Amino acid sequence: MTWLLDQPLTWLVATLLAYRAGCWLRDRTGRHPLAQPVLVAVAVLAAAILATGADLDVFTDGTAAVSFLLGPATVALAVPLHRQLHRLRGYVLPLLGSLVVGALVSITTAYGLVVLLGGSEELGRTMAPKATTAAVSIPLSESLGGIASLTAALTILAGILGAVAGPTVLTWLRVRDPRARGLAVGAASHGIGTARVLGEDEVAGAFSGLSMGLTALLTSLLLPLLAQLL
Amino acid sequence: MRFLTGLTWLLGCQLVGTVIVHLTGVPVPAPVIGMLLLLVVLRVRHPSAGGDGEGSVHVAADALLGHLQLFFVPAGVGVVAYLGLLRADALPVVAGLVGSWLAGLAAVGLLAQALAGRRSAPGEVPGGLPGEPPGGGSGA
Q1: What is the spatial distance between Cα B96 and Cα B90, in angstroms, rounded to a whole number?
Q2: Which of A72, B33, B83, B85, by CA, is between 20 and 30 Å from B24?
Q3: Could you tell me which chain B residue has the CA closest to the CA of A139?
Q4: What backbone torsions phi and psi does residue A29 show, to the nearest 5 degrees?
């Protein structure tokens, strides 16, 4: 049994099965917001790893192929964007204006709230880039003097938060324009949030993917400037 | 075969993105540069052609994007290793994360909708505003 837990292939198969279970649960519950396949799969696999005391390195090894596909899948976001690009006409100002303000708000509230609530400055710096995709938040945290691995975890959690609650919160706020909904989810919850909205509305999904990319760029430019002020 | 051709396009754009990031040091992930490159490729080639190039890219992209959540599962499981660290500073971490996430989401959503004006009917997809000149800076 322990031998089986040490096989990377075991965890690849387990990951695919856990994801399938998540999809099944989502469809079974009539697309309940909490039944996000990513959340279900992570919960099941984390519980399995903790319960069996399996080596996380073996898991990472086995699922490297799955993680690798994130690259081409991100490139693939150009396709829904291409199909929806005509909706950008006359929308350049709302797009850029909201994303610049959004990046500033995300950075300052992340740092400010942590420090205000008694966290260390280091923890504040660790939180500051959490809204961007992990490929950007991790190096940003490093260069800022944060704890990069913790930033990675917070980034994932911000994404899952968006996948679970993003569309619901936007509906409460009466944000109904699918373009604005997509921009908001992509700016606050990067690719994981994009994955959720893309499954429900192609317009929102396309704008979410674009928002994720632009937010990564804006945050990379703005965060070092803000860090000098903080 | 169409899937494989499409996947090659996607990986090729990612590779060119990697080269661009390596050469220029631009602070953006290579796949995001690849996404913008692919968008240019799709624009330049006629979108409705549906020939071998675009058709296959669409096939591969739709297949991958249909399961985008799957690709985040390994990273999510990695969070487990940091649960202890997160627990130590539970209040600032949880309140900071949720509060800041909410502020960012609300700021972008409300501002984007306000700047675009309220012409979109509730629940209805706003049109592409075909009458306006392309690239017009005015959102109102």
Answers
A1: 10
A2: A72
A3: B27
A4: -95, 15
How do residues B40-69 score in pLDDT, each as one tens digit?
999 887 544 455 555 899 999 999 999 999
CA–CA dist A120, B131 (Å, integer): 53
Question: Residue B90 CB: number of other CB atoms within 10 A?
Answer: 9
Q: State whether A64 and A104 are in the same domain.
A: no
Q: What is the mean pLDDT of chain A?
A: 92
The residue out of A41, A68, A95 marking a domain boundary is A68
* Residue at which a domain ends, from A68, A94, A124: A68
Contact A150, B93 (CB under 8 A): no
CA-CA distance, A131 to A151, in Å (whole number)? 10
**DSSP conformation class of A132:** S
Q: Are A144 and A128 in contact (CB under 8 A)?
A: yes
Answer yes or no: is pLDDT of A196 > 90: yes
| A75 within domain boundaries | no
Query: The domain containing residue A20 runs over which residues?
Result: 2-68
Do B100 and A110 contact (CB within 8 A), yes or no?
Answer: yes
A36, A59, A65: which is closest to A47 by C-alpha?
A59
DSSP state of B125: P
Tell me what ipTM this predicted complex has: 0.91
The token pair at A214 is: 């632009």
Domain count, chain A: 2
Lookup: tokens for B51: 């020939």
Q: What is the pLDDT of residues A146-184, one digit of tens each?
A: 888 889 889 999 999 999 999 999 999 999 999 999 999
Q: Give rounded-to-5 percent helix, strand, coil for chain A.
A: 80, 0, 20
Q: Is B27 on the interface with A (CB under 8 A)?
A: yes
Tokens, residue B119: 């012409």
A218 has a chain B CB within 8 A of its CB: no
Instruction: Tell me which of B18, B87, B100 to substitute to probe the interface with A (most A C-beta atoms closer than 10 Å).
Output: B100
Report residue A216 CA to chain centroid gap: 12
pLDDT tier at B119 (50, 70, 90 boundaries)? Answer: low
> Can you give the pLDDT at residue B131?
37
Residues in chain A closer than 8 A to B86 (CB atoms): 150, 153
Tell me the chain A residues in contact with residue B71 when contact means C-beta distances shorter than 8 Å. 66-67, 69-70, 73
